[in-house]
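User: Working on a comparison across species. This one is Aspartate aminotransferase family protein from Cognatishimia coralii. Can you predict its structure so I can line it up against the others?
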Amino acid sequence: MNMITNHLPTAELQALDAAHHMHPFTDSNALAAKGARVITGAKGVHLRDSDGQEIMDCMAGLWCVNIGYGRDSIAEVARRQLLELPYYNTFFQTTHVPAIALAEKVTSLAPDHMNHVFFAAGGSDANDTNIRLVRHYWALKGKPEKQVIISRKNAYHGSTVGAASLGGMQAMHGQGTLPIPGVVHINQPHWYLEGGDMTPEEFGLQRARELEKKIAELGEDNVAAFIAEPIQGAGGVIIPPSTYWPEIQRICDAHEILLIADEVICGFGRTGNMWGSDTFSIRPDIMTIAKGLSSGYAPIGGSILSDEVFDVMATDEFYHGYTYSGHPMSCAVALENLRILEEENLIGNVRDVTAPYLAEKWAGLGEHPLVGEARICGLVGALQLTPDKASRAAFAEGPGNVGVIARDLCFEDNFIMRHVGDQLIISPPLIFSKENIDTLAEKAWKVLDKTM
Ligand code: PLP
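Assistant: Here's the predicted structure for Aspartate aminotransferase family protein from Cognatishimia coralii:
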């Protein structure tokens, strides 16, 4: 019998963790020296650690626990499904009710022209699906040379070889010889860091037109798709200027380039609408989904396809699929999550109540001497830290970076904000209350004071 339980002393759990568990995106030696914080439970928007401390989670786990922790009905649904049908696949002429029901539900929430979904186990493998899918789509349309996918520097689309290639993270490309052939990157629309003397609107247009230049350079007959997050999340919550997306849409339409909106973070309400694509008036051909689809209660992701894309793909067998595509328990959990999202009007509440209140408090934090820009859209935001507001200067990168210091101070004060370089970011559960926002604003101001 495995005797490792919540009741072991923290130091013992940490030692075992360091001895056997290699963590994602983590410097193992640094973590072992310090010891990982052991999370033992959670309820609502709060986590609990092995020392009994309560931690306010302003990141919804990894941008995913939108309905909050500790939902009984999800546990019930998962239990029932595991007893009834724990697993069966949807590969060879079979299907099952949870997959049918979730496909129907998800596509009913999607834009009208998108009525088909291909399931995956998360966002990375869904984006791998997209790479193969768009290339095969063009082959079926008699244009097999349309292969290249254009993405953006500093984008995050996942960690598999394909998804990390789509992503534009330099550090990831440096490990494992990425990107794969046929993926190229243009600049991100990060006005604060890269906009110089331009207005955000001028800069948005200029950055969008880099796509058109890249298409011209590659030849439109060689380009399959453009992929982007409506708001770049892991890159630092980069909210594009208002001119950016309309111009991107125009360019994709004009040059017959499929538009893939990676909705893994923005989807299911994060920006105050069902989709980030709604917030920015994007008309995608494909949407990547994961995270908020199940609020992180079970692993599931997928690609939602337009009717046009599906109709072409349906003319041939697609040699692609995952053992856990449409896993019955994950589908059942996702359905219950979406039921809660609708029944509790969580998205409407974000749009009408929480987001405006958070925007007000966030603007207040923007007045802090250390904050150059306080960006917010719905319930996702960033505080851009700067040594000099006027010049929009950046701090030196590295271990003593202010972002790291501020992030660690938050953690010590029992609330979680993440840092990306000089940016402190939040993405709280959609159930975040005004009271939670007050606490966050108060604690964040104190952390900023201490960081200076
Ligand atoms: N796409 C985006 C926009 C993401 O933020 C992420 C994860 O953070 C992914 C894809 C990858 O999803 P997963 O970690 O479920 O593979």
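For your comparison, note: Residues 354 and 404 are 28 Å apart (CA to CA).

User: Helpful, thanks.
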